[in-house]
Design brief:
By secondary structure, this protein is of the alpha+beta class. It has 4 domains: 39-82; 110-311, Phosphatidylinositol Phosphate Kinase II Beta; 322-413 and 476-550, Phosphatidylinositol Phosphate Kinase Iibeta, Chain: A, domain 2 (2-Layer Sandwich); 416-459, no CATH class. The protein has helices spanning 3-10, 17-61, 68-77, 85-94, 110-124, 137-143, 173-182, 187-194, 236-239, 262-282, 337-340, 364-380, 398-412, 418-432, 452-459, 499-511, 522-537, and strands at residues 147-152, 166-171, 201-209, 212-219, 232-234, 247-249, 255-260, 291-299, 305-311, 322-326, 347-348, 359-360, 383-384, 387-394, 478-481, 484-491, 495-496, 538-539. The strands form 4 sheets. Strands 3-4-1-2-8-9-7-6-5 form a 9-stranded mixed β-sheet. Helix 11 (337-340) links the parallel strand 10 (322-326) and strand 11 (347-348). Helix 2 (17-61) packs antiparallel against helix 3, helix 2 runs parallel beside helix 13 (398-412) and helix 12 (364-380) runs antiparallel to helix 17 (522-537).
């Protein structure tokens, strides 16, 4: 036999067609079984989702008496399969803010990661309330403390890397603690937004001198049980505007962290007593930025960096489809071509605002009065360059349209004065604290499980969120529309009327021949701002307000 024939005989025989046909039915049966299981799983999920929507619609029909306990029960039933502890935690975090409203990305840069971890330590590791020995005279002394400064050295991460040595300062800790309480931001929610897993801090060599606490901070094990920060970086392009500030966003999407220069830091500290008093009187209606903390980070051999922690006006479960930045000025206030290229992330300006974007509500006068009062407060402190962020949510699905219309009917119905409703809701919440502490509930959402009246009464106040946003009752300012809603609030209030702004006003008015430029004296700026809102943004209802007996809307009737 030839060598080539011998090699051919050594090759494995090719499978026959008959054997392939024999295996084909078994493979097809396996595929059909897997497909059937997949379809069955999808059917179960759809069924649970429909039940949740039906229950929510029924609750809306009953007058927003759907309690948080029943709502959470339905959401938990939607969790299919087993998940790790981290996966469950992330699912719970991201249900707070709609995916389309989240800001920032997880940056892999080493320097950004180190800075983020240092910021998280500064936001969460404070001696007040941590040591447990603050009582008697010690507590009285700490009431007068204006600054806490802690040094952190040789802090090791879980992967063996070491953070650079740094120190962080907590500015006016007592004042901002009170502000967080006034704005309805409880301590647990604030800490959890920036929490580092399994962090237990120890303070050494703590001394109080000249209204300042100084000491060293370390962890009980000498290392961090993580390798990356949970803060998300917001690029300057996404932040829009002319600001050169750095922006971070908390992992749950509810809080913003913004750098501030020395002038802005001094302005905030100078106005802090008056700002606190103003918030104490207007915390449930004011649209001023909600400042929760001021911190300074300093690395060896570098210039100190200051950061402000504040609320995010669009931290809603409802997606924002269109965004505006409104100052009341007309000159040059139109979105640029570069801004328009961002698509859904585009931020429009005053000249882009049309009649179809305006809000018609019977609360228009109350809302304009609030904005006028806020702008007058800023004008008295010689502040300008602020603007109103305005985000539009448009209901799309039948269930969303149903929810939006029922919320609009409730919003526009003539109840007793909304201030009395708010006072009644606060009384109900305070009386319920003995049964279930709303600031330390198991889910950390700050809502009492034992009081349906709490949700119902708060829903009748002037600014109230959708049911899913009720945990951020005081962090959102929402105005209902027949098929959606708008979320709004004032930003960027820390620019003072100083020599730089006076020169800008002089030259821009001369070059632009007196046209309506943005930079104006604080009193003129405030009047123009409030006038624009009253004439273009928040308008009276076109038809008479809906009476109580008119509520009876159903999808079939529409």
């Amino acid at each position: 036999m030839a060598p080539d024939d011998a090699r051919a005989d050594d090759r494995p025989a090719a499978p026959s067609r008959s054997s392939e046909r024999a295996r084909a039915p078994a493979n097809d049966a396996s595929k059909r079984a897997n497909a059937f299981q997949g379809l069955k799983l999808i059917g179960n999920v759809n069924k649970l989702a429909r039940n949740a929507v039906d229950d929510a619609a029924g609750a809306l029909t009953r007058g927003f008496s759907f309690t948080r306990r029943r709502f959470s029960k339905q959401l938990k039933r939607l969790n299919v399969g087993r998940a790790s502890r981290r996966t469950k935690q992330m699912r719970r975090l991201w249900t707070k803010v709609h995916r389309g409203n989240r800001l920032g990305t997880a940056d892999g840069d080493v320097l950004t990661n180190h800075l983020g971890l240092c910021l998280q330590l500064a936001f969460t590791a404070q001696r007040r309330g941590a040591s447990g020995d603050d009582g008697g005279d010690g507590e009285a002394v700490e009431e007068a403390v204006k600054r806490e400064v802690y040094a952190v050295k040789k802090m090791e991460m879980a992967n063996g890397e070491t953070l650079p040595n740094f120190s962080y300062a907590v500015e006016a800790p007592k004042a901002f603690e009170e502000l967080r309480s006034l704005w309805g931001m409880d301590a647990r929610s604030y800490r959890s937004a920036f929490a580092i897993p399994e962090l237990k801090v120890v303070f050494d060599d703590v001394q109080i001198k000249n209204d300042e606490i100084r000491g060293n901070m370390r962890t009980d094990t000498g290392k961090l049980e993580t390798t990356s920060t949970s803060l998300r970086v917001i690029s300057q392009a996404l932040a829009s505007g002319k600001s050169r500030s750095w922006f971070f966003c908390s992992e749950d999407g509810t809080l913003l962290v913004k750098t501030c220069n020395v002038a802005e830091k001094q302005t905030l500290l100078k106005m802090l007593p008056e700002y606190t008093e103003y918030v104490r009187e207007n915390s449930t209606v004011s649209m001023l930025p909600q400042f929760y903390g001021l911190y300074t980070i300093e690395f060896a051999g570098t210039r100190p960096l200051s950061f402000i922690v504040m609320n995010y006006w669009f931290a809603s479960t409802k997606i924002i489809h269109k965004r505006f930045d409104l100052k009341g000025s007309s000159f040059g206030r139109r979105a640029s071509a570069r801004e328009l290229n961002k698509g859904s992330a585009c931020i429009y300006k005053d000249n882009d605002f049309g009649e179809e974007d305006a809000v018609h509500t019977r609360h228009s006068q109350n809302i304009c009065d609030v904005l006028k009062k806020d702008s007058e407060f800023l004008a008295k402190r010689n502040l300008l360059d602020y603007s109103l962020v305005f985000g539009e949510y448009q209901a799309m699905t039948p269930a969303e349209i149903f929810e939006a219309h029922k919320a609009f009917e409730e919003f526009e119905t003539k109840h007793v004065d909304w201030k009395d409703q708010r006072a009644a809701a606060v009384a109900v919440a305070e009386s319920d604290e003995g049964k279930s502490d709303i600031n330390s509930s198991a889910d950390g959402d700050g809502v009492s499980e034992h009081s349906e009246e709490f949700l119902m009464l708060e829903k009748a106040s002037m600014f109230t969120p959708f049911l899913q946003d009720v945990t951020r009752l005081n962090q959102l300012r929402m105005v209902n529309k027949p098929k959606g809603a708008v979320f709004c609030g004032i930003i960027d209030i820390l620019t003072e009327w100083g020599p730089k702004k006076k020169l800008e006003r002089f030259f821009t008015s001369q070059i632009c021949c007196g046209r309506d430029v943005s930079c104006q004296r604080p009193d003129v700026y405030a009047k123009r701002f409030s006038a624009f809102m009253k004439q273009n943004v928040f308008l009276p209802t076109i038809k008479p307000a809906i009476e109580d007996e008119d509520i009876g809307f159903t999808l079939t009737e529409r």
